[in-house]
Request: fold
Amino acid sequence: MNRLWETFSALTAIDSPSLGERALCDALKARLLDMGVSVYEDDAGAQIGGNCGNLYGFLAGSLSLPPLLLSSHMDTIEPGRGKKAVIDARGVITSSGDTVLGADDAAGITVILESLARLRETGAPHRPVELLFPVAEESYGLGSVIADYGRIRAKESYTLDLSGAIGEAADTAPTLLSFEITVTGKAAHAGFAAKHGVSAIAAAAKAISRMPLGEPEPGVTVNVGRIAGGEASNSVPALCRVFGEIRSLSHNMALEHLKRVLDVFTEECAAAGASAAASHRCEITVYATPPDSPVVRRFVRACERIGVAPNIHSTMGGSDQNNFALHGIQGLVIACSMHDGHSTREYCRLDEMEQCVELVMAMLTDGTA
Reply:
């Protein structure tokens, strides 16, 4: 437990914003090499404008079974520079209050490192372990999009990157479509010639008011997150840009809702005498791991072995597992003690990280194929 705390506090003290994970990557390399893990870093950083690549690792096993892939991402969101972990008498860990804690995903990394250390110290028979610590996960999984999957032999994975109690796991995560719509109206002086102008902002506002924002149906969310338009308060705005996203546990349903959004903008712009031009991008693609798959059954056995209740469900958040699934790797995203993520209220618990170590070790030492 002391080592868990020391590892976690040391890792969170390292600045590792998306595209700036160099120092953390170097620290991880040193720790893994000390434990006899072979490591490799790819050139993802050069491809996406970062200072660091994805970090791979491999630890040979004594069980004649295929390897399992363990993964946690190296980057954190902002404000994440100058982080300092603080622990109270109950073992609850927070930041000093002006940054995120970075448990997302330093908690996952800490659990993986401690699990490997204990396997080495106990000599417990275990299967081969492959590791992938991606960069830029918080930027729609940019690092794992271009990971070198030719290096990975595992067909089953556990990604430690989920909020909730230990024993929770996500077997399904959504497609996420981001969209940008540019509404073009006609500029005019707001005081002398307002009737000759066409307000792009007004047309966009009418379209947005018709959008089914929030959760229009189970398993679908629609959001407008940013609007930018106009140049001066005394000018009818000729341009307005609208940015949003759609998530769905069905890829086709996400596309259907995108079409509805675009149709609404087309109709409202035409009625106002404006026009709309849209673009969209699929940031992540839905995956669904079958409930009877070996990766799920192993997780359930491990939960029962350490005395926690398995709780497998879908999530509306993406992770690197979305990209792993595109390359034929079935997996679960498992809880590793991260709470109130993406905020300065973020916290984790030392006892939960200990539970997660026990869970990971139970899966790695499970002799069932």
Summary: The radius of gyration is 23 Å.
